[in-house]
Amino acid sequence: MKIINKFGFSVALMTLSLSSTVMAAEKLNVICSANIDWCQLMVNDFAKETGIKVKMARKSSGETFAQLRAEKRNPKVDIWWGGTGDPHLQAAEEGLTQEYKSANLNQLQDWAVRQAEQSGFRTVGIYAGGLGFGFNKDILKKKGLPEPKGWMDLTNPVYKGEVQMANPNSSGTAYTTLATIVQVFGEDKGFEYMKKLHQNINQYTKSGSAPVKAAARGENTIGIVFMHDAVKQTVKGFPITTVAPIEGTGYEVGSMSIVKGARNLENAKKWYEFALRADIQTKAASVKSFQVPSNLSATAPKEAPRLEDIKLIDYDFKTYGSSETRKRLLAKWDNEVKVLSR
């Protein structure tokens, strides 16, 4: 019912408008591409500290990027937290995310700041982790298989049906694998490698961490993942051995981006600053997430693989995070690798 007061204003309308504004200010829509327990920790702590109601969905990096493209004209998401940096960089290039320069950039690792600079400050690094694989040592021993030390070992026919990785179209981890192999061996030899590896793959999963989780459960032998995901299974008590490939390997800069056209922009900025804080990043270890944090003052988990101990390649984030290169490599993988029988 509309009530007109003595000043001629509609009280009901004013109340409704004020209520709608307050409600909008207290919401935030987040897509999280890290492990679900870490996602939930972030949501719970942010909501408790700010009083903002957070709606969170957990999706892989590839799935999230596809959603942002599909919703470009009417975005439903405010902020994208976590997941490999390449699709974040591509989203920035395609104008799906918006520029935001934190006042706390000087508190971050160089690799996190470079990520921000390369994207025109449309994304920023929040953690890092080296790529490798994990194997179930009990299954390996039971089957009498040798322990793999590097990428080339995984193409050995003795591992036929024993290796699992994610699909690079849906998984940022798997796209980083594809881009890493191309950079380690060169594109032609890299794709020949992927074809040989394909013969040993038992399944391409949707999620990047799923292969080593399957190995931990005894459903698979070797999972190609970021090393911190393999370490997590070991810490949980599973017989998983983590391997940093001897030929050299790539790494991820897990990233965070504010979506262009975010409906709850101010709250997205609050999450952004919250996620860059040292005390918040240090909490990752409490949910057994063992990435290297981007804040210089954050405490890295003692179990986290030390980047300085891994033979890291000079991963070209600018090239392999570009829309053109990513589309081309994925199409080539679909047409030349995925279609092969095994």
Provide tags for this entry.
single chain, 342 residues, alpha/beta, D-Maltodextrin-Binding Protein, domain 2, 2 domains, ten-stranded mixed sheet, 14 helices, 10 strands, globular, disordered N terminus
Descriptive account of the structure:
This protein is α/β, with parallel strands linked by helices. The protein has two domains: about 10-130 and about 255-305, 3-Layer(aba) Sandwich (D-Maltodextrin-Binding Protein, domain 2), CATH 3.40.190.10; about 130-250 and about 325-340, 3-Layer(aba) Sandwich (D-Maltodextrin-Binding Protein, domain 2), CATH 3.40.190. It is about 40% helix and about 15% strand. It is built from 14 helices and ten strands. Strands 1, 2, 3, 4, 5, 6, 7, 8, 9 and 10 form a ten-stranded mixed sheet that branches. Helix 2 (about 35-50) links the parallel strand 1 and strand 2 (about 55-60). Helix 7 (about 170-185) crosses helix 8 (about 185-200) and helix 8 (about 185-200) crosses helix 14. The longest helix has 16 residues, at about 325-340. The chain is globular, with a radius of gyration of 22 Å.
The H/E string reads: HEHEHEHHEHEHHEHEHEEHHEHH
Count of strand segments: 10
**Kindly state the mean pLDDT as a whole number?**
92
| Highest-level CATH class of the largest domain | Alpha Beta
Q: Give the uncertain stretches in residue-range form.
A: 1-24
The fourth-level CATH homologous superfamily of the largest domain is Periplasmic binding protein-like II
Fill in the CATH topology of the largest domain: D-Maltodextrin-Binding Protein, domain 2
Q: How far from one another are the termini?
A: 69 Å
Sketch the major β-sheet. 10 strands, mixed
Strand content: 15-25%
Structural class: alpha/beta
Count of folded domains? 2
